[in-house]
Amino acid sequence: MPGFLLHANAAMTCQHAAGQAKVVPGQARVLVSGQPVAVIPPGAPTIAVLPGCPFTVPPSKPQPCVTVRWSMPSTRVKVMGLPVMLAPAPGPGPGICQSAEQIPQGAPIVGAMQSRVSAM
Length: 120
Hints:
By secondary structure, the protein is mostly beta strands. It has strands at 3-5, 12-13, 20-23, 31-32, 35-36, 47-49, 56-57, 61-62, 67-70, 73-79, 82-87, 91-92, 95-98, 104-106, 109-110, 118-119. It contains no helices and 16 strands. The protein has an 8-stranded antiparallel sheet, with no helix packed on it. A 4-stranded antiparallel sheet has the order 10-11-1-16, with no helix packed on it. A two-stranded antiparallel ribbon has the order 4-5. A hairpin with a 2-residue loop joins strand 4 (31-32) and strand 5 (35-36).
């Protein structure tokens, strides 16, 4: 499925709209809109949710979003052997926010991102 290349400074929040998500640049050689293209390395999460997510589960147990697992890698475009992250458009992103206990919390919301370079 085609999508736009995600970059390191794309604006993203968790589903609860309070936790800012920050893409950790996995490479610095390939740029789009002057920012490093986001890649999906094997294993570790690549998007960290900064403190600020207010989500709690009953009875008042804090369960904030801390990472985002991205689920839309490019099948054809790779940077340094790693697939790039793709997003279809601003709005709900193709990923899942997770708590520190790896509990799914909903899709991240992609705000501002570049819309010039797309890939499959």
